[in-house]
Write a structure and sequence with these properties.
The protein is of the alpha/beta class. The chain has 2 domains: about 15-145, Rossmann fold; about 150-220. The protein has 6 helices and 8 strands. The radius of gyration is 19 Å and the shape is elongated. The chain starts with 8 loop residues before the first strand and ends in a 16-residue tail after the last helix.
Amino acid sequence: MHRAEKFKCEIISWARVIRDAKKLSDIIRKSDYDIDIVVAVGRGGYVPARILCDHLLIRDLTSIKVEHWGTAVTSGRATVKIPLSGDIKNKNVLVVDDVTDTGETLRVSLDYLKEFEPKKIKSAVLMHKICSKTVPDYFVKKVVKWRWIIFPWHVHEDITEFVKSLISEGIISEETVIHQLYNLYGIRVKPQIIKEILSEIKNGGEGIRTPDTTDMSRLL
């Protein structure tokens, strides 16, 4: 993220994730798809896939890692960074991710996994945006009006990226950062969380472009 752009975000709670994952498992179960193995698409699909395995009583879970999205920006063409670590040949596979946005991550995942000759392959996500070019077989919620979805497993990461973007534009006070997070993204963040993030950025500093006049000691 190179500059602070205004768009709406929605933060999903752990309680909702658990509730929606249960609903998703019910939808899948009613479809009578006899799943042999679940493949999580990392990193977003790790948690939903594990919860689905629990509800569907499936013990075989493996994963791949596909890189495409940063925080609300594409990082270029989707590619498989970490390959499949299990055998899916002649098996009924369920591919799980958290959300479809452009649909590119899911498309690349399905195309890649088909090379391993599964018997059948279907996909599931918690939230499906209608702008996605790839439509999953199963999903709980259809997102009609686009917004950036922030699941609990990447809240800290996304907010950190937002804060880095604000710092790169010279915004360095806690109060201003909190105000801008709400003004730009519609999210409310507690002062203590911002203090912790600013401390982490100060102590790490990797990948942050700060104005020449910025004294990082002033961030805290």
